[in-house]
Amino acid sequence: MSLLRSMLLAASQNQWLRHRAAHYPFVRRTVSRFMPGETLDDALDAAQILRGKKIGTVFTHLGENIKDGSEAQQVTEHYLGVLEHIRKKGLQAEISVKLTQLGLDLSPDLCFEHLNAIVERARKDSIVWVDMEASNYVDATLDLYRRALMAHPNVGICLQAYLHRTKDDLAKLLPLRPSIRLVKGAYKEPPEIAFPRKQDVDENYFELGRQMLRAKKENRCGRAAFGTHDVALIRRLADLASTEGFAKRDFEVQMLYGIQRAEQERLASEGCTSIVLVSYGDYWYPWFVRRLAERPANLWFMVRNVFAA
Ligand SMILES: Cc1cc2nc3c(=O)[nH]c(=O)nc-3n(C[C@H](O)[C@H](O)[C@H](O)COP(=O)(O)OP(=O)(O)OC[C@H]3O[C@@H](n4cnc5c(N)ncnc54)[C@H](O)[C@@H]3O)c2cc1C
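Above: the input entities. Below: the structure tokens describing the complete assembly.
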């Protein structure tokens, strides 16, 4: 991991920087490249625009670490409200939740109740996605995911290709016919836990992606979604999917709002399933700094914003 990336990931956890960052207009201008705004209405408006380009949306609300059960309840109610908006507006949209927001640190059973309530409210032909957080949460997240999946088929999980363990996790999940969003992984992890070299992460991603496509072909995987902006990797996986005889719409790529927009549109116009994850909420600091860490060149974009009007 590069020193700069490591420093940025450490900064993403810094409370003092978090409080300062929101006061600087140039930081807010940079953040606006990655999120359409802080409110749900901003996110819904962005989804309408994406829809016009045949791009689907996944909403995620950026929130603080919750301190008690009533906050987890509030987050749950917020997402139930989002599902209602999606239904009323007839949007082609889904949601993605973080289990720590639903009370995982307080009680796995309470967290399960919240997740269950959300999945029950979601349309049966849509997926409620569960984010994967730092490695100390992986076991608990997978346990709850399995419980939820046994009760409802319309729930999906994010797996991280940078973790050594993910190959085994995928193999253990496949008998349950999961829906999977594969990402590279966004947290600061030691080399015993995650591949330190980008090249190894990329190769592991391709290999896991290959296994997901094979499982999908054999009906052992619900949705196989590739959560990446890595155009070379997307092309390799798209070629594989085409060789395996997949219809274009069964090749699914999910990207973050504001990143690789041209590629999002290209995939949609070719008939692939192109989905954008739209984040909103006022607790954007750690999430935003992880975006900087993914591409430190974004720092220059922020520096340019210091001088922008
Ligand atoms: C839909 C979605 C959901 C995600 N959910 C999770 C999750 O639950 N848990 C988790 O740990 N991680 C999650 N991530 C983040 C993921 O782990 C990576 O950190 C992130 O996607 C960057 O990796 P990459 O695959 O795009 O590849 P990279 O090799 O990092 O990037 C490939 C190319 O994409 C572009 N790019 C990538 N990131 C940026 C950026 N921030 N700004 C500008 N350009 C960029 C650059 O051109 C870069 O060269 C999610 C990502 C997506 C797209």
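Note for the figure: The chain has a mean pLDDT of 92.
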